[in-house]
Amino acid sequence: MGQLQAGIIPVTAFQQNCTILFDSDDKHGVLIDPGGDNDQVLHAIRSNGITIDAIWITHGHIDHAAGAMDMKETLGVDIVGPHEADKFLLDSMEEKAAQYGIQGSGVRNCTPDRWLKDGDTVSFGSHVFEVLHCPGHAPGHVVFYNAIAKFAHVGDVLFNGSVGRTDLPGGDHETLISSIKNKLFPLGDDIGFICGHGPGGRFGEERRTNPFLT
Description:
Blueprint: E1 4-11, E2 16-23, E3 28-32, H1 38-47, E4 51-56, H2 62-65, H3 68-75, E5 78-80, H4 87-90, H5 93-100, E6 121-124, E7 127-133, E8 142-146, E9 151-155, E10 158-159, E11 162-163, H6 173-184, E12 192-195, E13 201-202, H7 203-209
Parallel strand pairs: 3-4, 4-5, 9-12
Antiparallel strand pairs: 1-2, 2-3, 6-7, 7-8, 8-9, 10-11, 12-13
């Protein structure tokens, strides 16, 4: 087994961190949260010789899942996640695109091949991730956690110096803070994370300094 590696491609006007997780040896991996700009993402995949085995979705917001169905068809892989509580979001992305004035940008409603729940595991090769259901930003938001690598992809639950917004449909601030404090922080201060926007960090630093959590 090679090391777990990550490549980040910020996509769309939302600058969402579409992420490629892959094994350094065999170059197999997964694509997390393809929110758009699929040509750019495909170029990164192909120019680095990576084989995508599945698409993983953290939650159902348009900037994280709008490109998933096209990517599924292009790559010939399954869409895995999020939790089924986000079905109403995935079913209404085309409607949201019209509201935001971004029609014709390849946005499609998304139908996952597999829903996830807390305690499930997902994997590629020998890299195994635990699924943590972390609602608050979105009711069906999930986090992917790899204990061996001491790494988590947290989507829009937690940011470097901030937390996910909770003013969107299904959001709840108290639930979000509970997800962070009771699901993420107990994993350990040394856990590194990639988030949905901007730079990542470590849980310990966020626990000590994040103004929304101290």
